[in-house]
Amino acid sequence: MSLMQRLERWRGMISRLPALELEGAVRALLVHFFFHTSDKQRVELVGEGPRTINVLTPTVFKGAGAFRLSNRAVFGVPRSPGSLSCSYFEARTPESLIEIGPGTVFNNRCVLISEGAFIRFGADCLVGQELQIFDSHLHDLRLAHRRSPDPSPRGVEIGSQVFIGARVTMLKGVRIGDGCIIAAGAVLTPGFEAPPMTMVGGNPARVLGPVPQD
């Protein structure tokens, strides 16, 4: 049987599948593909229990650095926009580190790039769609050197039980205390710091006040 004949046979089989079954099958295939093409040797799972990674939507892990991931972290939300798109986690240099604590859940289409420092999440964070975090400018900002890497990356530290809305951007040196809320669309400029249990929003971001209490 030729390749075209096999493709036509598969097309016929796929067209007869119920829509939800087809969506789930495609998502599972994409999850497998992107994780299979990841730099899996760089991924360290930490914590007691199963030595498996909870990747529920397409996610890729790339780079020469290290990933230290809790086996209770979750990557992707199937019943959410972008569930067939790929989240991208890169520890770009040998010195780079991305560390994710237990119970932290990422929604879809997130981008985290560590380029020589670290990006660290505590426990039980909730992360909205399309989060972007960079621990460097990715380029030297000086005009004559803009094709070179940032010479001074600075780590990004997110505490525990932080709630991050959709389409948030965090730049190098950001520090977020435990229990904070980061409003959708906020842009946290280099070196921004949020004390524990505060609400943050805006572009550029600022502290808006305390997190509401019961």
UniProtKB/TrEMBL annotation:
EC number: 2.3.1.-
Pfam families registered for this protein in UniProt: Hexapep (PF00132)
Keyword terms: Acyltransferase, Transferase
Database matches in Gene3D superfamilies: Hexapeptide repeat proteins
InterPro entries: Hexapep (IPR001451), Hexapeptide_acetyltransf (IPR051159), Trimer_LpxA-like_sf (IPR011004)
Keyword Lipid biosynthesis attached: no
Record-given protein name: Acyltransferase
Organism: Roseateles subflavus
